[in-house]
Amino acid sequence: MEARVKEVELRDLWRRYKEEGDATARERLVVAYSPMVKFVAGRLGAGLPSHVEDADLISYGLMGLIGSIERYEPKRGIKFETFAMTRIRGAIIDELRSLDWVPRSVRSRAREIETAQSKLEHKLQRAPTEEELAAKLEISEEELQSSLLEIANSSVYALDELWTISDSSGDRVSLLDTIPDPGADDPQEALASSEIKDRLTEAMTSLPEREQLVVALYYHENLTLREIGEVLGVTESRVSQLHTKAVMRLKSGLQRV
Question: Architecture of domain 2-100 in CATH?
Answer without folding.
Answer: Orthogonal Bundle (1.10)
